[in-house]
Design a protein that fits this description.
The longest helix has 19 residues, at 299-317. This protein has helices at residues 18-27, 39-45, 70-84, 98-101, 113-129, 147-157, 179-189, 204-214, 223-227, 231-237, 245-260, 265-279, 286-294, 299-317; strands at 6-9, 31-33, 37-38, 61-66, 88-93, 133-139, 161-165, 194-198, 218-221. It folds into 2 domains: 6-237, Aldolase class I (TIM Barrel, Alpha-Beta Barrel), CATH 3.20.20; 245-317, Non-ribosomal Peptide Synthetase Peptidyl Carrier Protein, Chain A (Orthogonal Bundle). The protein is an alpha/beta fold.
Length: 318
Amino acid sequence: MEKSKIVALAPLAGFTESAFRRLARELGADLTWTELTSANFILARGLEGPHFHIFPEERPLRFQLQGSETRLLVKAAEMVIKRLRPEGIDLNAGCPAKKVVKTGSGAALLKDLPKLYEISRALAELSHTYGCNFSVKFRLGFEKDELEKIAETLLKAGVDLLVLHARTAREGFSGRARWERIRDLVKLAGEEAFVFGSGDITSLSELERFFEETGASGALIGRAALSSPWIFKEWRDRRPFKPSLKERLSLLEKLAAYLGVYRGPEETLKVLKLFAPRLLKGVPGKRKILPLALRAERIPEFWAILYRLEEEADANNR
């Protein structure tokens, strides 16, 4: 397997903020993505708040924008580039969520290729002006597979990196991702753009098979990274890794420490409650202990309850 292949943390709304990006990079992710951020939100509220914290440890990083109006997207992108200096700007043209699609953004852009071209061309030109790389993350189509038309549109617009989730927007996350279409995209792009792919990569063996079958330059790990962030370590070390309960709790503790740098205790606890069920997936005794931890009102109480998992494991091993 080529060492030059990139394995990145995919953008995941509600999860891939600074703390988790740092954790993913520490475990071996080559690249991280911010969660999608509305251009309108940035223009209305600026770049203040927890979603705009970026530390050196989580770079290289791509900042993902969502929107449907070229002028507003360009204005927001310029603010992001000047202030946050990401290594890349990414346009979301794949999110199938109803609240995103109804605004004409996300996967809705796949229904209006002239608009997708206009936005992509403008963002590519802006990014290149500032020496920044530009990518578009998209689906095979909205209701049906129209990969060839979409790829032609994006390549003509000057996109540097094509990132394909190999399902249609209508499919959401159902069925199987069609990796053969990522291979088709690699052929279509040729030397004009790099191709990354995503969809159904949940283990080291699948990751290796993904690269063999698609020939893509990179792979994005999304939902699987929430419950098995050590997949990045597995890729880096080229061998499977089975974390102990102590190691899983240690990852959660690191996440808490990174969150504490820019979030208050109450917000930190809320985020930890999102990650705990995922990082502790499959742990014996979780069903009894975790609900109690998720009802904790303060961080010390949260940890005291979770550490009972270790105590019970030690008792069972005696």
